[in-house]
Amino acid sequence: xxxxxxxxxxxxxxxxxxxxxxxxxxxxxxxxxxxxxxxxxxxxxxxxxxxxxxxxxxxxxxxxxxxxxxxxxxxxxxxxxxxxxxxxxxxxxxxxxxxxxxxxxxxxxxxxxxxxxxxxxxxxxxxxxxxxxxxxxxxxxxxxxxxxxxxxxxxxxxxxxxxxxxxxxxxxxxxxxxxxxxxx
Length: 184
What we know:
This protein is of the alpha+beta class. It has a single domain (4-161), classed as CheC-like (Chemotaxis protein chec).
């Protein structure tokens, strides 16, 4: 039901979203690579977002560990001190970046599929993702983003198709990500 071209497109859009939302001007992307399964992802929390259309539902998770290195990355990314990146400020920062990553994916899909909508971010314990197979998805993939040689984030997506899906993702030009408000 989901063509190989569409699977590649979903994966490409996931990679573009991770790259655009989680990197700052001083970051270098060491690599972004596919990950074989959820078993290879060790982070304890994930931001979940959903992109829906009449033809599919795509769930996206950004896996992270709420440790000092992650808080330091988000403090640098948002231009605040490490002391300011705790509690609700940290949750807001990770949700905002997850929202921007999913927004990039949503815009990429909107070029092909009319009437796509995006949910608000929600943080989940990654233990709940052990039940991902119950969604009976037609495509699932995972990717690891490594920044500056050590900071890592994982992204996952699962697509449930209600109709045949076939499209080709186009390479999106590098744009400066500064946040946006989407109304739908």
